[in-house]
Amino acid sequence: MATGTRRTLVALIAAGSTLLTACAGPPFRAAPRIDPHARCEALFARVDAVVAREGVGDASATRIRGFPHLRVDRLLASFRTEATGDAAVRFWAGRLARLDATARSAEIANLPPPARDALTAAIPQPHAGLAAALAQCHDELLAADLADPVRLAALRDAAVVPDDYSTVRRIAGLYPLTRIPFAAGVRVFERETAQVFALPLASLPVQGRLQHFAPPDEALPSRREQARQIREAAANPLGVPYVEGEALRVLALAHAPVLVVDVAGDDDLIGTPAWPPRGPARVDPSQPAVFYRAAHARVGGQVLLQLVYTAWFPARPPRGALDLLAGHLDGLVWRVTLAPDGEPLLFDSIHPCGCYHFFFPTPRARPRIAPASVDEWRFVPQALPRQAEPQRVVLRIAPRTHYLQRVHEQPSPVSTPSSRYALQADDVLRRLPLPHGESRSLYGPDGFVAGTERAERFLFWPMGIVNPGAMRQWGRHATAFVGRRHFDDPRLIDERFELLIDGEDFPPSNTR
Q: Which end of the chain offers a freer environment for a tag, N or C, measured as fewer CB atoms within 10 Å?
């Protein structure tokens, strides 16, 4: 082929290639992957950032890393590997979403109005509102979790509640050694308390005047009606009796205790927590109230309903210049564990600091053999008879310390001064009213009530409890200095007591 011809052919081939390249367009590049849920994840991240900046976080339930739309408590954490089958998994995950929605609602309500308005203005469709946008995103992200086996497995792994003990503090405080004198101190307190409970009721000293605080005088449901409500509430794939709303209030009213307080000063009057214009939260004794909530105990393969009552006092006044336990605000927490038939099986009590955990079994609860250890396991200052219907439990409370001194079934003579307390849902403490229509939680984002720190924290820190003695939010009550124990642990009761839930009594035993 001639040289000129060859050059012409090469030119034609080059021109054709250029033409084809121009027609084909730029080189192919894969389109970037678009996360269909990025919008919702960004919304939760934005809300969380504002909540953290304004210091209005709620610590009752634990946030789940990697799942900003879900939170977990110790009950649901105990089901994380046991919830099997599509219905159970969906119900379990749905309750996680509900925990987040409830806490998030309180957090947003407690935001300063400008911060809340700014969040609402950032919603792509302002007319829908922030609450509606969050609800839609809750549903969207939850559906994605349930549809993805990998994501669901990751959720099971992450749905845990860390305990309220600091291992670092225990290491720094030489816990294996320092726990020994602490355990000895606990035993001394238990012996002294047992001596008080051993006194005849009429022999208990009175430093001021005995004042009754009784629940509202309303018609009470029968045990049969209570059993029906509990049974209906437990008709879910996990068998958890989630009694809520008015049904919970009715059950709480049926088992609410009578408080008989030795009133030696204003700090011994129960009241309603409130925020003054300045300073820490206070308790208003002019509005006596007891706050109730539901909790749950896992016993074998069943889940039992528990009713929890909290009474608040203005303070624990000092008994001397070096009273490490004195401080602002104090309280008493009383819990009733119910059988499915509505009869109390066992009672227990703490203070809102998590301190002074006492158990009061009935004949349907038999203590299990305690492990051989110096750990705080179970202190039973008094056993109780079966509670007749509609008999109320009466709590005798000491002045100043607000220690329990006795539990009995019949109130003292009616000649003692008395008053009625209001029965309020514990959740109202997450949104206490402020002037100008705003609100603020009683609890800080760390779960503590600000201003209730005790001097004991400088001495007791080696036991690993953060801020010992301070008042705490539900879900944050570590109840043992020696050992590890949490008031809301769903297995707490079952580990320490054998319960009869079929209505019979255990035979008499010398283990009591």
A: N
Same domain, residue pair 139 and 262: no
- 178 and 143 in a single domain? The answer is no
> Cα(113)–Cα(437) distance, rounded to whole angstroms?
10
Q: 162-169 long-range CB contacts below 8 Å, 24 or more apart?
A: 162/62, 163/478, 163/484, 163/486, 164/354, 164/465, 164/466, 164/476, 164/477, 164/478, 164/486, 165/464, 165/465, 165/478, 165/484, 166/464, 166/465, 166/466, 167/464, 169/461, 169/462, 169/463, 169/464, 169/466
* Boundary of a domain, candidates 158, 188, 207: 158
Confidence of residue 182 (pLDDT cuts 50, 70, 90): very high
Closest by CA to 72, choosing from 146, 134, 161, 154, is 161
Same-domain pairing of 254 and 386: yes
Could you tell me if residue 19 is inside a domain? no
What angle separates helix 130-147 from helix 86-109, to the nearest 10 degrees? 150
| Interval 71-91: pLDDT, tens | 999 999 999 999 999 999 999
Residue 129 has a pLDDT of: 86
Residue 321 sits in the same domain as residue 243? yes
* Whole-structure pTM value: 0.91
Q: Which domain holds residue 422?
A: 167-499
Query: Are 297 and 381 in the same domain?
Result: yes
What CA–CA distance (Å, rounded) separates 102 from 97?
9
**pLDDT tens-digit series, residues 274-308:** 999 999 999 999 999 999 999 999 999 999 999 99
List 202's β-bridge partners, or say none: none
Q: How many domains are there within the chain?
A: 2
Question: Whole-angstrom Cα distance, residue 271 to residue 274?
Answer: 9
Return all residues near 134 (Cβ < 8 A) that are at least 6 apart: 43, 44, 47, 101, 104
3 state SS of 367: strand
